[in-house]
Design a protein that fits this description.
The chain is of the alpha+beta class. It is 42% helix and 19% strand. The protein has 23 helices and 19 strands. The strands form four sheets. Strands 2-3-1-9-8-10 form a six-stranded antiparallel sheet, covered by helices on one side. A six-stranded antiparallel sheet has the order 4-5-6-7-11-12. Helix 2 crosses helix 3 and helix 21 crosses helix 22. The radius of gyration is 23 Å and the shape is globular. The relative contact order is 0.11.
Amino acid sequence: MCGIAVVLGPRAGDERSLFDAMLAAISPRGEVDEVLCADDALLGTARLRIVDREHAVQPWTSADRRWALCFNGEVFNHADLRAELHAEGRRTRSVSDTEVVLETVLAWGEDALLRMRGEFAFTLVDRDTRRVFLARDPVGVKPLYWARARGRLHLASEVKALVPLGVPVHEVPPGHCGWADPGAGPDLHPYLDLYRLGEGRPELTDVDEAADALRETFTDAVRIRVDTDLRVGVILSGGLDSSLTLLTVRELHPDCVAFTVGTEGSEDLAYARRLTADLGVEHVVVPVRPRELGLSDVREAIRVSELTEYGDIINAVVSQRLFAAVHRAGVKVVLTGDGSDELFGGYAMYRRIGEADLRRLFLHKIGHLSHTELQRVDRTSMGHRVEARVPFLDVTMLDLAMRIPQELKQRDGYEKWIVRHAFADLLPDYVMARHKNPMSHSSGLHERIRLFRPLFGRIYRGYGYPCAAPLQRDFSEVLKDHDYDLDAAVAAARTPRDLTPAEHARDLAGALRWNLASRVRRPARTTGR
């Protein structure tokens, strides 16, 4: 929904030029820049207008002007929370979720965060003391970073806004909140422990019970995310998760449109076209030929995404094209199928890890989504003024998935078996039977972008992003190198390591072979169709 830029501390006004640069860095996240400035506090928001578009001006201030909120994201149950506030005698001045965030925190303190169903990050400044309360959603769909320099606290939605400070940049972890002073902190702690979701509750071992719970929970997660008067887009790969998302969105919000990126002849495109034709849903295809992707695309994807793993950067190159097309179509809200693979065993590593380590691997993947898949989705969507919502990562879905045993997630030769079973009457047979096929792999785009992988590190360092985290090998590669010993892989990942020159050379050789071979194969493939 928005981008946040904040400077707090003595003579903060002296840093107005820096603040303006911070705001410019996150400006693509919104349609309008809104600021509130004082001698010792500079607050700014790049606002993407979605809920109560005319009145939810930020930074939003309390009626007595003491509190000022910079808010990024959406709280989908804001109407219910507003009704609770009114029942307690508290008055509101808008129908925005922004005001609900401020008022519920003032009314209920930290407990308000546990009552919010949403994807959010925010800063709430006490203008009397210049203390600030920070919070981020449980899984880290929306980002928030901080840094201290020259006795002042700097806060922003993206690392690039803080790079000019020349100091280490820190993340507000998912599911954390806490207070900070301009000269110290922040003092953050978890308000919800992602790693303990579902703990102490019985497993759903009965197939029908698990399927019913999954269907009800996912449908509700989509319902609250399409409660808007805007047209809703769905990012459609043609795979199980995105197809299920489109089917559910169409039932709950018929004013929808699907977007698919791919190369002509790819499986993704064929499946997506078939499904949208069967449903009668408008379908926008974003055609990309591998040879169209060059170094400039890679450079821009790294700049926008700030990603630290190679595989995510490759996918970000493709996502850039996709969300640019969504923006051109005038769509501001989209739903994606991200998160399902992490929750329901969609990756090959889940079939290779030891049974005793499966739950810990699930938790590790979910706990790091904010640095990987979710960071890619956030940066590449918001960089084109598009808000991507992820129903599979609603906190109710996370809690449920932790209670469904592995034998229901991988069964009869299929990954995510329980998802297929729960929606068997809704999903077409051709989607039900399709196995996972990663977006950029299925179209040849992955192998094209691999040609530029040896340059990723230099480009990444050129943008100054090591101030937050180094570029490193994909965790899937680390796990494979340690023969799927989870403890050894996690220990190794604590000291991030980039690819060696030899590994880069082998990778480049493989990419060159694939690209040369594809030039020989391509004419025959096209003729065959």
